[in-house]
Specification:
Distance between the termini: 28 Å
Bound molecules: alpha-D-galactopyranose, zinc ion
Low-confidence stretches: none
Largest sheet: 11 strands, mixed
Number of strands: 29
Length: 672
């Protein structure tokens, strides 16, 4: 399902907090003019409007929202309507204190802030269903409505109230059925932690890893359950209006791979920290990784529900975007699969915590500003890219990023705990594909169909379920190419260590068993040799014994000439293993070679300069320069059409700092 169909192209929009401006109607009038000027075709409204919509229990005030809908509709804009549960009204907390979360010490959190309601509270769920029912009944058939935006940025902050604890114990009963099997899974013989009744279980004991992991899983599941409960009236009353909820940057304590299965369209809020380092390349790679994860959740286009039109106000230092960066950052989202460029927010708030967060219309209140001009320019570019809406990219490579693995690894007390950096390591592997212009998905081990890919990387997949191990085995035996690294397959889904060699259940597939994992301290710099080059090893290094694999890289004498990189033929495929953390230079080289060797689709451009990203989507090639300097890119023999200027382009082009070029392959006369 693509919401682009409603506007015949990509969406360009913003959060519109109309209710904050009711006392300044002349500003609201100007908005309509400015929105048209900036080619804004969609607004997300109602995100935090509960106290304005329901001033006391059962007392509704929809007039302002009616007016907002009608004015935007007449002005040619579509609407994404939010449910207001992201922030609760004071009367609700006062009347039903159970809607506020409880900390582990039993103290209820005071009313205020946002994103802090109890997900189990019967009263909160009832109140949400009531208001959402009203919204669906009132606006469900409005011609401007295209999408439901359920709540806002759900998170996994746990609540320890009696209702949540009871729900957790029920969740455990479903998972384990008996206390005996729970005690076995949690290894409670350790430190005398055996439970003899369900009521004894309290999820605040970091020494029981199984318990902590299940509590994290439960909290994520509870959030999904809450989302389903508050979406029910929307689905029932407006079955034709798709439903989304805006995800955040991982990791916020939610298993988004699982959550994704319950929404119609993925959307997320993208806030890169541009210009906080001298080189924006690493931030661009990280942002690309998050975008690609969003595209991979459901294997289809997503929406960038929020992004900052300027600087935010929640970082220690937030930089204004340098010339070109706004368009570049917006186009990056589209290039990776977004069907929208949307902002937080349209108009900068006068008061409250976010009053210094840049918006499309600043406190100056006019369209004659740098930020507005950049937004308007982006609007006109987006309009020219309508052919891209709804299209996909052919992908043969994937990096696995597993939220639950991140939690388990976070809980684990390893022999090196400083610098575990799970997410960073996944991004490092992904970075090799980004730099080579090779499209790459970012997938969850449990939900993804491995068989769709030619090459899958499993970085630090410490917690490997038996099911995933079987999927990996099948994938390789059918001809797939897999790469696993140090710290893979150490524990099973109950966080219990595999006995008999790691990677657990896969030692025959990888043709090796890890005997121990050594820690590398900061002052050490062991090396391994591969392909005639010396490469640095850092952080972790496995001592392995080969049982079928051959060594492709070998540590130098400081590490006893042990294997460092191995390959093993298994069935029709190949299983590679990298025994140590390495520097980026090795990663970049290794995956380039691997893609060549195993014929993973490469980029049409032969040479991609550092800091430049090349992405293809729906037959359109996006070339994006994240360098703060001019950069030359060679297009090879092909002739292209510049989609923004309609000029023919070939040969060598010069991209300005933070510049982009968007190209369609030019058809020769007679060519189909
Ligand atoms: C998030 C929220 C918005 C706003 C922005 C500020 O993404 O969803 O309501 O607070 O951050 O950056
Ligand atoms: Zn609770």
């Amino acid at each position: 399902m693509s919401v682009g169909q409603f506007v015949g192209g990509l969406l360009h929009g913003a959060d519109y907090n109309y209710e904050q401006w009711l006392d300044l109607p002349e500003q609201l009038d100007k908005d309509l003019v400015y929105m048209r000027e900036a080619e804004i075709n969609v607004l997300a409204v109602g995100v935090f409007s509960w106290s304005m919509l329901e001033s006391d229990e059962g007392i509704y005030n929809f007039e302002w929202l009616d007016q907002c809908f009608d004015r935007l509709h007449k002005n040619g804009q579509k609407i994404i309507l939010a449910t207001p549960s992201g922030s609760k009204p004071a009367w609700l907390s006062e009347k039903y204190p159970e809607v506020c979360q409880m900390a582990a010490d039993g103290i209820r959190q005071p009313h205020g802030g946002r994103h802090n309601h109890c997900r189990s509270s019967v009263k909160y769920r009832e109140a949400c269903v009531r208001i959402n029912t009203r919204l669906a009944e009132r606006y469900g058939t409005h011609p401007a409505l295209i999408l439901w935006h359920v709540s806002n940025e759900y998170n996994g902050i746990p609540c320890f109230c009696p209702q949540c604890l009871a729900a957790f114990r029920d969740w455990l009963k479903k998972r384990y059925e008996t206390l005996d099997s729970l005690n076995a899974a949690w290894y409670t013989a350790f430190w005398s932690h055996r439970f003899t009744s369900w009521e004894q279980i309290f999820p605040a004991d970091p020494s029981i890893h199984g318990l902590m992991l299940d509590w994290q899983r439960f909290t994520s599941d509870r959030t999904i359950d809450f989302f389903l409960a508050e979406s029910e009236p929307l689905r029932r009353i407006t079955p034709d209006i798709p439903v989304t909820t805006n995800f955040q940057m991982p990791d916020v304590g939610l298993d988004y791979h699982k959550f994704a299965g319950y929404v119609d369209i993925i959307s997320w809020d993208n806030y890169p920290k541009w210009h906080c380092a001298p080189d924006d390349g690493p931030e661009a790679i990280k942002t690309g990784f998050f975008h690609d994860m969003c595209r991979s959740y459901l294997g289809k286009p997503f929406l960038m529900m929020e992004s900052g039109p300027g600087a935010n106000s929640w970082q220690g230092i937030s930089k204004k975007k340098k010339k070109g960066m706004h368009l570049l950052s917006s186009i990056q989202a589209v290039a990776h699969g977004s069907d929208s460029v949307q902002y937080f927010q349209w108009r900068q708030s006068r008061g409250g915590q976010e009053k210094f967060h840049d918006a499309v219309i600043s406190h100056l209140g006019t369209d004659d500003t740098r930020i507005f001009r950049e937004v308007a320019e982006t609007g006109s570019v987006i309009k020219k890219l309508s052919a891209v809406a709804g299209t996909d990219t052919k992908v043969q490579a994937a990096v696995v990023y597993d939220f639950q693995n991140g939690w388990a690894l976070g809980n684990a007390q390893l022999q090196r705990n400083t610098g575990k950096n799970y997410q960073k390591e996944c991004i490092a592997q992904y970075g090799a594909f980004w730099k080579a212009g090779i499209p790459c998905d970012v997938i969850g081990p449990e939900y993804a169909d491995f068989e769709r890919y030619r090459l899958i990387v499993f970085p630090m997949l410490y917690m490997l379920s038996e099911k995933t191990a079987e999927k990996i085995r099948a994938f390789i035996s059918h001809g797939g190419v897999a790469v696993a690294t140090y710290l893979t397959g150490i524990v099973n889904e109950s966080d219990l260590c595999y006995i008999g060699g790691t990677p657990g259940n896969l030692t025959d597939v990888f043709g090796l068993a890890v005997e121990e994992t050594k820690t590398i301290a900061y002052y050490e710099a062991p090396e391994f040799v591969m392909n005639g080059n010396n490469w640095k090893a850092t952080h972790y290094a496995d001592r392995i014994r080969l049982c079928g694999a051959k060594a492709l890289g070998v540590f130098t004498s400081s590490f006893e000439e042990l294997p460092a990189v191995t390959a093993c033929e298994y069935g029709k495929g190949t299983a590679y293993y990298i025994c140590t953390r390495t520097r980026q230079a090795f990663i970049d080289w290794f995956y380039r070679e691997l893609c060549k060797k195993h014929s993973v689709d490469s980029c049409v451009l032969r040479e991609i300069p550092a800091g430049v990203s090349v992405r293809e989507r729906g037959g359109v090639m996006f070339i994006m320069n994240f360098n703060c300097r001019e950069t030359t890119v060679s297009l090879g023999e092909n002739v292209y059409r510049d989609m923004l200027t309609e000029e023919s382009i070939s040969g060598t082009i010069l991209l300005p700092p933070y510049g982009i070029i968007i190209l369609a392959k030019k058809r020769e006369p007679g060519e189909k």
